[in-house]
Amino acid sequence: MTQQSKPTTTATTSTDTTNSTDFTHSTSTAAATSTPRSAHADEPTSSSVSAAPASRSRLAAPRPLGERRLWPRSFADRLTAPLPGLRGFARLAREAALRPGPEGLADIPRLPYEPAPLPRVDADTIAVSWAGHASWVIRIGGLTVLTDPVWSRKILGTPARITPVGVPWSELPRVDAVVISHNHYDHLDAPTLSRLPRDTPVLVPAGLGRWFRRRRFTSVTELDWWEAAELGGVRFDFVPAHHWSKRSLHDTCRTLWGGWVLTAPDARRVYFAGDTGYGHWFSRIGDRYPGIDLALLPIGAYEPRWWLGDVHCDPEEAVRAAQDLRARRMAPMHWATFVLSAEPVLEPLTRVRTAWEKAGLAREDLWDLPVGASRVLD
User: How confident is the model at residue 158 (pLDDT cuts 50, 70, 90)?
Assistant: First the structure.
């Protein structure tokens, strides 16, 4: 990409002047039918989204770790596109459009899978290892951080994994923190999380803390968009995404969704997008957090576009997102693991490579890792 010139905890009371709405004691409710704004709109339509950055000069002070907060009953006013209605579900069922045909599945044996030992790192090294889907092992600032850890062979509503987990659980170092992007089953996996010690710090979207506390996790920090927490000198900022949340019949958009910017003590940054469609948030994140060294961006689960285009990037949009972020490097994810949509299983990789080349970006800055592989930031 184009170039730009056992841990301790820090808990500071927030004095964020960029957030004109305080969600800490919010009791407002948002109707599930609230009108979303355009995914490319410049300004949000709801005052509850006014937490968007007002300036680049100052980030929010980190919030206290483990803080218990009250949240709105719904985050539907954060949607950037309408959710599908009954007609959409009927069309999906009629067209049987969420699985590739036999030809699209024929390349499963060719999916890149090259497990290798995790690199040895020190506190000054940043390294990423792709376990598959949106699960990364990030070594940053002396911490080991898991993103959306899913080590299960199968998740609710999908066929089994088409590639094995790239990093055996037994080979993980001590996990210092977990970040969750949203509550969909392919990102929030109860069997995997049950393997963790219950005092593992978890950082989650607003409204999702209850799910973890019910499972006896004792260090749960919930954040709204543009809020942050700090652990062992590493800053964790929760940032917007074009997505949604749902885990059961009656909890649509009851918890928030988003991505994470991890900033090391030396100011190097890794951005983990979680699940997201393409839209205006990427440029705002790039403005707010300049100098992102590596963007972990989703490139799969995008067909059919009429169904998934608002909530999942396709490969070309992921490359545009990396450019909007002004990230120095991009590592694709959210493909080659579960069959969640109709595109051929190998297509995301071929398309992202083509889009990267067409954009005139340096080939060495596209970290298209096999499942199980690692890279170390210079």
Answer: confident
pLDDT in tens, 61-95: 999 999 999 999 999 999 999 998 888 888 887 88
Contact between 78 and 32 under an 8 Å Cβ cutoff? The reply is no
The whole-angstrom separation of Cα 215 and Cα 278 is 33
The whole-number average pLDDT for the span 153-171 is: 96
- Output DSSP code: residue 63: P
Q: What is the dihedral of CA 294, 205, 147, 289, to 10 degrees?
A: 10
- pLDDT attached to residue 246: 97
Q: Kindly list the distances between the CA atom of residue 226 and the CA atoms of 84, 288, 326, in Å, as whole numbers in the listed order.
A: 27, 9, 18
Evaluate whether 299 touches 348 at the Cβ level (below 8 Å). Answer: yes
Residue type, 334: H
Choose among 180, 150, 202: nearest CA to 340. Answer: 150
All domains of the chain in start order, with CATH: 87-376 (3.60.15.10)
At residue 228, what is the residue type?
A
Distances (CA, A) of 211 to 155, 190, 216, 251: 17, 10, 9, 12
What pLDDT is recorded for position 52?
41
Confirm if 203 and 179 have CB atoms less than 8 A apart: yes
Order of strands, sheet of 135-140, starting from the edge strand that comes earlier in the sequence: 220-223, 202-205, 177-179, 143-147, 135-140, 127-132, 374-376
Looking at residue 49, what is its pLDDT?
A: 38
- Give the rounded distance of the alpha carbon of 174 from its chain centre: 22
Strand partners, 372: none
Residue type, 370: P
For the stretch 339-355, what's the b/e string if a residue is b when 16 or more beta carbons lie within 10 angstroms of its beta carbon?
bbbbbbbbbbbebbbeb
Secondary structure (DSSP) of 99-148? S--HHHHTTGGGS-B---PPPP--TT--EEEEEETTEEEEEETTEEEEES
What's this model's pTM, rounded to 2 decimal places? 0.86
Long-range contacts: 87-95, Cβ < 8 Å, 24+? 88/307, 92/307, 95/304
Q: How far apart are CA 184 and CA 247, in angstroms?
A: 6
Read off the tokens for 280: 């205006």
Look up residue 210 and give its two tokens. Answer: 């209850």
Burial 82-97 (b: 16+ CB within 10 A, else e): ebbeeeeeeeeeeeeb
